[in-house]
Design brief:
The complex is a heterodimer of chains A (about 625) and B (about 110).
Chain A lengths: L11 H7 L3 H29 L10 H35 L8 H19 L26 H30 L12 H33 L12 H35 L6 H15 L14 H29 L8 H24 L1 H7 L3 H31 L5 H27 L16 H31 L38 H8 L13 E3 L5 H18 L9 H21 L5 E3 L1 H11 L1
Antiparallel strand pairs in A: 1-2
Helix pairs in contact in A: 2-3, 2-4, 2-14, 3-4, 3-5, 3-7, 3-12, 4-5, 4-16, 5-6, 5-16, 6-7, 6-8, 7-8, 7-9, 7-10, 7-12, 8-9, 9-10, 10-12, 12-13, 13-14, 16-17
Chain B lengths: L15 H33 L5 H23 L8 H24 L6
Helix pairs in contact in B: 1-2
Amino acid sequence: MSTAAATKDKSVLWDWLTTVDHKKLAILYLVAGGLFFIKAGLMAVFMRIQLMTAENDFLTGQTFNELITMHGTIMLFLAATPLIFAFMNFVIPLQIGARDVAFPFVNALGFWIFFFGGLLLSVSWFFGGGPDAGWTAYVPLSSGEYADLGLDFYVLGLQVSGIGTLVSGINFIVTIINMRAPGMTMMRMPLFCWTGLVISILIVFAFTPLAAGLALLMLDRLFGGQFFIPDMGGNAVLWQHIFWIFGHPEVYILVLPAFGIISEVVPAFSRKRLFGYTAMVFATLVIAFLGFMVWVHHMFTVGLGPITNSVFAIATMGIAVPTGIKIFNWLFTMWGGKITFNTAMLCASSFVPTFVLGGVTGVMLAMTPVDYLYHDTYFVVAHFHYIIIGGIVLGLLAGLYYWYPKMFGHKLNEKLGMLMFWLFYIGFHMTFFIQHILGLIGMPRRVYTYLEGQGMETMNLISSIGSFVMGAGILVLLINVVYSAFKAERITVNDPWDARTLEWATPTPIPEYNFAQTPQVRSLDPLFYEKMHGDGTIKPAEPMEDIHMPNGSILPFIIGLGLFTWGFGMVMINMENPIIPPAVVIGVGFVLTFGSMFIRSIKEDHGYHIPVEQVKKIEKEVS
Amino acid sequence: MADDLSKPFPKSSMSEEEIMKINKERRIQVTSFAFMIFLTILAFVAVATEMIEVGFAIPFILLLAVIQFFLQMYYFMHLKDKDHGWPNAFIISGVVLSTPALIALILLLGVTKY
């Protein structure tokens, strides 16, 4: 059949649209997630400008509601999730010693479906405004009676992007279970792979209830269903249950990989192995399990009754135990280590105290009686931003600085990195620490203004200034990316950080097939083991042979486009006077999606082989 | 080298023993299928005819459902077979995670407050 020549002479655009290479998809995820992150961050800055002074009229209440909804939705579904998938895509196959994920085609499919789902949600701005019922979209606020077209985009957009996330999650489970290199037993996997496996499982179990809930809401809104309308025998509390059965595990889906990144960065720059590896794995599993048993703590004030509330309160406090195990393990990893404080390590080590602050307020919120006091105030806002920014974003930043040389072939500038870190870290605490106090003196969340003379002006002003400082930090990061791309020294060594895990055994830049020969893993932290007990290179587990690679395909892109068209057509059902009948658009979407699936099914595609001579040539070039 | 991947093989490469094993497996599948159909018919009969009173019929068909669930999982979906550790782990964790959610939803959405 064909040979490696198949990959040459493609235009750059066509190459990126059709790629099934996990490294390129990681960069696509990184760019898409980064763009959504910046967009939602700007929304947050607008909201802080509005709240800077009492009775400000920078935004109307309606716009503020739309911004608040889109900020939350985008940050969780379209920024944090893809950024995490970016690192999982790039790192996990390398860390387990695989040539690619188990299903490269499905990997591309997951990205494009997520991307078009996000696009569908975002086009709502051009059709009468974004969704405005909060990212939780509680009924009846999100029902046909109160919410406009924006919420149809929310329902369909999340449905589509949720399919993408589910597909990627399944792919990673299969990859981690089946594609590990010889000797890479489960208990030798780096912690980032473990958390990747666990969150993939969580995705499969948590995104399915969300898909079901969104389908019910869609039936209510588009086809006159009554699942959530009490007057017609429905139940509004049912939505809250379904949403939080998904929503609470979602928090762990995002934070566990951040834990994984921290558990990679901290040992690498402390020059010690991770303290209590087994306990860390165990704690991850326990957190994942408990994460499913605590959803009612978001609904303490709904009035479900004292026994229910107590049971879920205690379960919630239980999560503090495995989390505490992790915190102490990171501290003990750093203890006595030869620590290098570069940007990645600064982000990773400052994550620990910040996350503890978020955890403490979490336990405070878990106490039902006082939760009646905290509920729906800025205290809650402060709490979850400490978890999400202090936990997830700092973890992602640490991962970005740590894996950047492997991904792009050069490091990010350290001086700009330090500047970014301090701006971001100080701005973050300035924005959110004071919001605890604002919440305690009674400022409700999700309001677009407040009155003078209630003692909230100064604190809101400080919080707003903090958010500008934080925004400046992200701006410095963007400048750093551009600056380093032009000025930074190219990396030619395999292992610029003197790190421990298998991804640093690959040459930089990484050839398409990752490992010319599948590596033989002899220990936890395989590269470190070989540096200590071997000659510093990983032993191959097989002779050099022709390498079988998957062909690129445009079909994932078309399937994503088809689902986008389908979703848009569904939204059109609720539009007044659409130019084209909705049924036509829905039909086109169906044909695109299922037609592509049909082509994929009947067209045989066995991939191609890179001949061994060429592998040898590439290996000589990169080493 | 990958040119003839889509051609069918002229002859099965399985040994006599493997063929016998497959035939046995097929017999087990058919038997369990017939048994499950029987259980379903039993459930329908229990509800449709008025021979059994309602108070007994509900736990009875629930019991049938549980039996059928295990038959489905272990015989139809091969959880009983060797090297099915991972599928077992995933199905069991799915059951463990969804059961409390279901029970809670049934209990918490009612009029009584716990």
